[in-house]
Design a protein that fits this description.
Oligomer: single chain
Radius of gyration: 15 Å
Strand order of the largest sheet: 4-1-7-5-6
Bound molecules: magnesium ion
Structural class: alpha+beta
Number of strands: 7
Length: about 160
Amino acid sequence: MTVRVGIGFDIHRLIEGRKLVLGGVEIPYLKGLFGHSDGDVLIHAICDSLLGAIGGTDIGKLFPNTDPRYEGISSIKLLEKVRDLVEKRGFKINNVDSTVVADEPHLEPFKPKMSAIIAQTLKIDEDCVNIKATTNEGLGEIGKKEAIAAFAVASLEKK
Ligand code: MG
């Protein structure tokens, strides 16, 4: 049995006039994440962790931000495409762990729904998707509520 791991990181700017979508869940907040897609920084980090584990590509290469097909797209759709690629390469997803770094809004109430959506999209059990949230203690752009970042790690197994 071959076990592979991959890491993903992403950061997006928070701006006014955008919906905030994190982990596939729309969260009421005065700002949203800027991006070519819906800007879902958590899903982007998870996509990159999965792509990292299978090797050879990343989210920027697969879904270029110059491609009009991906403009305003739900990042869950991108995650579906990544899952299909993982399956096509003969891998099974063991688990995904992640951390969102945001000083605002408070994400705790939304975590169960995010895990459920991600697990459903990846066709794995909910307890195989972990989402943690932390603040940046008021430091830097994240501390000033000008950005949200996310880290993710995925473990895969060659079928
Ligand atoms: Mg991104």
